[in-house]
TrEMBL record:
Protein name: ALS2 C-terminal-like protein
Subunit structure, as described in the record: Homodimer. Forms a heteromeric complex with ALS2. Interacts with ALS2 and RAB5A.
Cell compartments where the protein resides: Cytoplasm
InterPro entries xref list: Alsin, MORN, VPS9, VPS9_dom_sf
Length: 468
């Protein structure tokens, strides 16, 4: 929060060294107690000076769970000194307490973010979208149809009846009135948000630039992931409110009755089902980077597990994962003259594997869930073909088969993908099939992380020197 161009009120600061501070500022100076997270995930709670030197009473929690509580201070050239109690008997901390500790969430309302961006737009809509204020809102001059006809661009184009200028406010408002049905509204909003001359497109572009300035470079810090994803959701809510505001102005200009206010449930359905998928690509790069940083350790273990499972031929991997043999699609395996069944790899459940690999080709959480649902359908279709009848897989049979497909798909950074889908998906999917399949995918991800330990625990079971 800022006041008179000075940091004032609650805030979060990130340094080039990767140190994160959360606390209170007064006239650009840190005051009172706060939280300090160092690059090695050590956590300090207490008071410190403007240059982030620990001073006064405080508590340090180290990544291994040890705690140091007491008084801290520093002298000229003497470094940091403390007097307190070091507790080495504490249990290892929950990862969310230090390594995954999130800053900024809840210290100030999300609705208070970026009022300097939203304020001028709200004023413009409240005034009825006057033409003389359009240039100030959009930041540059917008030609009307008469100016367009006189312009060099018009002289160079085909001498046919010119299309209405969609960049004029009259045309923009008319477009909103003509496209209010769900399917037409989606396409209308898509065009508006992709057009920097449209008020909604201009607003989205400004929000995108503020997001990049905040969460790229120094701001690409794993402790800001939750703050960033909440900010994206808030931007979606504000963009929907901006659309509703423009629509009310359009109705008013035509002398029509304004639409009734939406309830919270209806608004959330529109925000998550309509606006968020359209605007998410503008923020995806920076947002996904934060997910990568936050889940880097788990994704590293997962990658090692995938590398280990990749050494298995298909039949050995199916056996290792305890997939029931009557579900093995051996008829899908085509052998050459000198090839043995036990040596074939990457052939079983190939259609499901190729389907799951498409989950990284889209940024829309809804489309990612659809890929997961199609993958489930491909697994069941393969099993039904093997059994010669339609077969619905129980969870006990589905999980090992899904682990097999995930291990063969070799999707990088699957943990980051899963958590982003979970955080950004439409709440309408909660409790449904997509939610169930996402939970199953999470279980596969966690299981694969443990495969390295499992393989070392039974070194003789699948000895690499054993003939396959």
């Amino acid at each position: 929060m800022w006041q008179a161009d000075l940091r004032h009120g609650p805030g979060v600061m990130v340094t080039q060294a990767g140190v994160c501070y959360q606390g209170t500022f007064q006239a650009d100076k840190m005051v009172g107690p706060g939280i300090l997270l160092s690059e090695d995930d050590s956590l300090y709670e207490g008071t410190f000076t403007r240059d982030l030197t620990l001073v006064g009473k405080g508590k340090v929690t180290f990544p291994n769970g040890f705690t140091l509580e007491g008084s801290f201070g520093s002298g000229a050239g003497k470094g940091l000194h403390t007097q307190g109690v070091l507790d080495t008997a504490a249990f290892p901390p929950d990862p969310s307490s230090t390594r995954k500790r999130q800053l900024g969430v809840g210290i100030f309302p999300m609705e208070s973010h970026w009022q300097g961006v939203y304020g001028p737009f709200r004023d413009f809509v409240s005034a009825g979208c006057p033409g003389d204020e359009q240039e100030a809102l959009l930041g540059f001059h917008v030609q009307n149809s008469r100016e367009l006809r006189k312009s060099q661009e018009y002289l160079c184009c085909e001498r046919t009846q010119p299309e209405p200028c969609v960049d004029r406010m009259e045309g923009i408002l008319d477009e909103l009135l003509l496209h209010r049905e769900p399917r037409a509204l989606r396409e209308c909003l898509r065009k508006a948000l992709s057009n920097s001359l449209h008020p909604l497109g201009k607003l989205l572009r400004t929000l995108m630039l503020t997001f990049q300035a905040t969460y790229a470079g120094i701001g690409a810090n794993k402790h800001l992931q939750a703050l960033a994803q909440e900010e994206v959701k808030q931007h979606a809510r504000e963009l929907w409110a901006a659309y509703r505001g423009l629509l009310q102005v359009a109705l008013q200009r035509k002398g029509q009755a304004p639409e009734e206010d939406e309830d919270t449930e209806t608004r959330d359905l529109q925000v998550h089902g309509l606006v968020l998928p359209l605007m998410l690509p503008s923020f995806y790069s920076e947002l996904f980077t934060l997910y990568l940083l936050l889940h880097e350790m788990e994704d590293s273990l997962y990658s090692q597990g995938i590398a280990n499972l990749s050494l298995f031929p298909d039949t050995k991997l199916l056996e290792f994962l305890d997939v029931q043999k009557h579900l093995w699609p051996l008829k899908d395996l085509t052998l050459t003259t000198n090839q043995r069944l036990s040596l074939v790899r990457d052939k079983c459940f190939l259609s499901a594997t190729e389907c799951l690999q498409k989950i990284i080709t889209t940024v829309d959480p809804r489309e990612k869930l659809e890929v997961l649902e199609r993958t489930y359908g491909e697994i069941e279709a393969t099993v039904s073909r093997v059994l010669g009848r339609e077969h619905k897989l129980p969870m006990d049979d589905l999980l090992p088969l899904l682990i097999y497909v995930v291990s063969r798909a070799r999707i990088q950074h699957l943990g980051a993908e899963i958590h982003l889908i979970r955080d950004m998906m439409d709440p309408i999917h909660t409790g449904g099939l997509c939610d169930f399949l996402l939970t199953a995918l999470e279980s596969c991800y966690e299981h694969i992380q443990k495969e390295d330990m499992r393989l070392h625990r039974f070194p003789g079971r699948w000895d690499s020197r054993e003939p396959w």
